[in-house]
Design a protein that fits this description.
By secondary structure, the protein is mainly alpha-helical. The chain has one domain. Helices cover 86% and strands 0% of the residues. The chain is built from 14 helices and no strands. Helix 8 runs antiparallel to helix 14 and helix 10 packs antiparallel against helix 11. It is globular.
Length: 432
């Protein structure tokens, strides 16, 4: 037998195994990404409709909403998603008392989120009725986010994907219908968003929703105290500092210069919407898998998941940037109208793409550290980057204007990523 014949089957088998691995990876991320991509697509369509139908100020208002509500979702994930995942890994499934405690905290937090969203929108001069309806939207979306986290923790991703799909279909179908009927107003748009969030809860089933809205006697708010002390106070601090690093410009520009000034920056965020939503949603899938591997003492498996995660977000970043570039170069009329300069939009999009590239490096490492329950070091690591981002963004905004404020975000993101990568390397040396 020749050497080539001897090694041929091994090469074929290796190649086949590699292709099978890629197919499995694509299927895994395809299922988990389908829901977020559907939501991202719905938000993209909605934003395009709002951009062309509303004034610059009203478009900036809805763009600001799509910054504030995801922040509420991140807070929900840090307060509830991480801890319910930990309980599921430890006990196989959360006990009735644990679940009761979490759903009660979820309901309480949703009320706070609704009030905060409404108050912020009133602060930027949104009509009171619109602010109240969008406050309901923010509150219900936080309930939905905890339900998604619970579904993933219980190995029921199809419920989360179905909820995302219902939400997306409701938004796109309703807004397109309103456009055709010439009935699209700011108030009607707010009603569509709130209604879609409520309808999307149906995917989680009557039994779960009954427990969410009528939790009964199982669990108590006081039972959350040790969870807060051991886990969530640090994860919450990390989320707040990360938000300061990542979106200081949105709050500063909107509150200082108004929603109209933020509208141009929202063009870049709009075009980066697919990758930003994937960054937010994939951790719900990967964090439990990494945590199970770490709990089983299998650090190499956790690191393989990190590598797969990085590959997935990197590929999504490339697709998103290519699509954004194609739209701005060949079809700028899709996202721009009178009053939005093409050159300014290109600069904003390039800065947003750079920010997202830095986040692509940081996000898998950050999720690994969360899975390893390194919340306190993560929060401390985020402190200086948030301070740097806030100061740099404010200085650039006041000195050079809204577009330049994105430079402060890029600087803060770079510092945070460097710190988290360093922390991740130290964890790898200690455990791998």
């Amino acid at each position: 037998m020749t050497i080539q014949a001897a090694i041929g089957p091994a090469k074929t088998d290796t190649r086949g195994a590699r292709l099978a691995g890629y197919r499995q990876l694509a299927l895994r991320y395809g299922l988990s990404a389908f829901g977020p991509v559907a939501v991202s697509g719905a938000h993209f369509v909605a934003s395009i409709i709002f951009l062309h139908a509303f004034s610059r100020t009203d478009f900036g208002l809805f763009a600001f909403l799509l910054v504030v509500v995801p922040f509420c979702l991140s807070l929900s994930g840090s307060l509830l998603g991480i801890s319910i995942t930990s309980r599921a890994i430890r006990d196989g499934k959360p006990g009735a008392r644990d679940l009761g405690t979490h759903v009660k905290i979820s309901l309480l937090f949703a009320g706070g989120a609704a009030s905060a969203v409404a108050a912020l929108l009133c602060a930027v001069h949104a009509p009171a009725v619109v602010a109240a309806i969008l406050g309901v939207y923010g509150g219900v979306m936080t309930l939905r986010w905890f339900a998604r986290s619970y579904a993933y923790a219980m190995h029921r991703p199809l419920r989360a994907v179905t909820s995302d799909f219902l939400y997306a279909v409701c938004i796109v179908g309703s807004l397109v219908t309103l456009v055709i009927l010439h009935e699209l107003t700011v108030l009607h748009a707010a009603i569509v968003l709130a209604s879609a969030s409520v309808l999307s809860l149906a995917a989680f089933g009557r039994r779960y929703l009954a427990q969410q809205f009528w939790p009964g006697r199982d669990g108590a708010l006081a039972d959350y105290a040790p969870i807060w002390r051991d886990i969530t106070r640090w994860s919450l601090m990390g989320v707040v500092l990360t938000e300061t690093t990542a979106n200081a410009h949105a709050y500063l520009v909107t509150l200082i210069a108004g929603p109209g000034a933020f509208a141009l920056l929202a063009i870049g965020a709009l075009l980066m919407r697919p990758i930003s939503l994937v960054y937010a949603a994939l951790p719900d899938l990967e964090r439990p898998a990494m945590a199970r591997a770490i709990a089983a003492g299998d650090a190499p498996r956790a690191l393989r998941i990190v590598k797969q995660f990085r590959t997935a977000v990197g590929a999504m970043w490339v697709v998103t940037v290519l699509a954004a570039g194609a739209i701005l170069i060949w079809f700028p009329h899709l996202v721009l109208k009178k009053g939005y300069g093409e050159n300014q939009a290109l600069i904003v999009t390039a800065l947003c793409a750079a920010i997202m590239a830095v986040r692509a490096v940081r996000t898998p490492e950050s999720v690994l550290l969360q899975a390893a329950r390194e919340f306190k070091p993560l929060a401390r690591t985020s402190l200086w980057s948030s301070v740097a981002s806030l100061i740099a963004t404010l200085v650039l905004l006041m000195a050079l204007g809204p577009i330049a404020s994105l430079g402060g975000i890029l600087a803060g993101e770079g510092l945070m990523t460097a710190n988290i990568v360093g922390l991740s390397r130290r964890w790898r040396r200690a455990h791998a």
